[in-house]
Amino acid sequence: MFSNNVKTKALYRSRFFLISAFVFISASLFSQYDFNDRCQDTYREILNFRFDEASNLLQTESEQHPDNLIPVCLENYIDFFTLFTGEDRVVFETLKRNKSIRINHLESGDKDSPYYRFCLAGVNLQWAFIRLKFGEYTTAAFEIRRAYLLLKENKERFPDFLPNEIGLGILHIIVGLIPDQYKWLASLAGLEGTVTEGVLELKNVLNYSDDNPVYSLFKPDACFYLAFIDINLENNRDESLSLIRMFDQDPILQHYSQSPLIIYAKSSIFMKTGKNDEVITLLSSYTPPSGTHPFIFLNYLEGLARLNNLDTSAITYLNRFVNEFTGINYIKSCYQKLAWAYLLKGDTTRYFQEIQKAGAMGNAIVDEDKQAHSEYNVGIIPAIPLLKSRLLFDGGYYSEALKMLLSTPLDRYVRSRKDLTEYTYRLGRIYHASGNLPKAIQYYSSTITNGRNLPHYFAANAALNLGWIYEGQENYIAADTNYRLCASMKYDEYENSLRQKAKAGLSRLKKIGD
C-alpha cells in the first residue's frame, strides 16, 4: 500500500512537472509573438506617422517583454516608411545595417508559429522595396524571392492566417506584371502569380469583418495598396472612389484620417479620377497633428493640383518641395512643373531656367522624371494651348480642356508631327473621359497612326486606352491587340507605367479566357 502511494505521488509529480514545462514552453513561445494592446497601439502610431511615439511604446514593450519579437518587425516598419518617403541616401546607408540584426533576431523565433515566416518575409520585402528606390536591384531581387518563399510556405502551413495575404497579394501583383519574355526568370526563382490573384488577396484583408483585432489592423495596408492598384493598373474609377468612402466610413480606417499616408492615398485617388478641386481642398486644409513625421511629397501633390487649375500659386508648393526634400525622385518632374508655371505667366526666361534644372538635378528613374528630362533634351518650349489642355484634362476640367484646343486655330501652335500627334491624343483623352467613345476611338486611332514611330508616349497610351475601351465593350480580341501594341512600342516617356498597365490588361483578359 505504501509502495503504491509513493508510486502514485511520483506519477502525479512527474505529470505536474510535464504540464508545468508544457505551459512554460507554450507561454514562452506565445510571448515571442505577442501582438498585444501596446503593439497594436504602436502599429497605429506608425501608420499615423507618429514615429517618436511609436518608438517610445516599443522601448517600453521591449523592456517589459524582452522575448517578444513583434517589436522587431514594428521597428523595421518605422525604418521602411522613413526611407521610402524620405529617400535620403545618407539615412539609408545608416539604417540598412539594421536589416541583418533584425533578421538574426527573428530567426531565433519559433518556427511553428505563423508569425515566424510572416515577420521574416515582412522585413525582407520592406528592405527590397527600399533597395529598389536606391538602385540595389540584385539584393532586392534576392529579398523578394526570400519573402515570397517564406510567405508561400506560411500559406501552406497556416492557410487561415490572414496577414499573410498582404505580402502575397503584393508579390503576386508584381509577378503578374513581369513581361512574358522574362517569365522564365520568375519561374527559375520560384515566383508565380497574377495581378487578379493579388488583388483578391488584398481584398480578403480589406473585407475582414470578424473579431480578431490583429487581423483588423492590416485593413489600412490593404486599402492603401488597392487604392494605387485601382488607379494605376485597373483603370477602375468607381472602385477607386469607393475606397475613399471606406477611408471615411470604416470605423477601423477612421483611426488614420489624419495620417499623411492616407491623405496621400486620398489625394492621389482624387487626382487620378479627375477630382482636382477635391485634391486642393483636402491638401490646403490638412495640418499634420503634432509629432507627425513630415511627408514632404504632399507639397509636390498640392503644387500639381494647383497647376492643373492653371493657378500659378503652384510655384510656392513646388519650390517648397524641391527646397525641403532630400530624396532622389520627382526632382526633375518638379522643376519641369515649375517651368510650366512660369510659362503660364508668360515668363519664358524663367521657363528655360527651370527646365535647365530639370536636366541637371535629380535622377531619371521614375517615369515622371524621365519625361521631364526628355523635355529638357528636346529644348523646345511646349505649345501653350497643348500644355493648358493637358493640365486642365489632368484636373478633370474636360470641357475647358476641349475648348482650349478647339478655340485656337491649329496653325498657331501645331508646329511639328509631335504636336499633331499630341493634338489628336489630347482630343482622344478628352472625348474618352467625357464618355464620347466613338470620337475617342477615332482620335486614338489617328494618334497611333501619326505617332507610333515617335519617341513620345502618345501613341502607346492611345493604344492602352483603346484596350480599356474595347475591354469594356467585351471586344476582347481588339482589347488584346491594343494592349499588346502598347507593350511592344518603343518610346522614352512613361514606359514603365504604361507597360505595367498593358500587362495588367492582358492578365485580366487571360482570366476571362480561362
Q: Count every beta strand, where a strand is a DSSP E run of 2 or more residues.
A: 0
State the CATH superfamily name of the domain at 385-514.
Tetratricopeptide repeat domain
Task: Assign the CATH topology of the domain at 385-514.
Answer: Serine Threonine Protein Phosphatase 5, Tetratricopeptide repeat
CATH architecture of the domain at 385-514: Alpha Horseshoe
SSE order in H/E notation? HHHHHHHHHHHHHHHHHHHHHHHHHHHH
> The biggest beta sheet, please?
none
DSSP helix fraction: over 70%
| DSSP summary: helix tally | 28
CATH class of the domain at 385-514: Mainly Alpha
Radius of gyration: 26 Å
Distance between the termini: 76 Å
Mean pLDDT: 89
* Low-pLDDT segments: 1-30
Instruction: Please state the structural category.
Output: mainly alpha
Strand content: under 5%
Coarse shape: globular
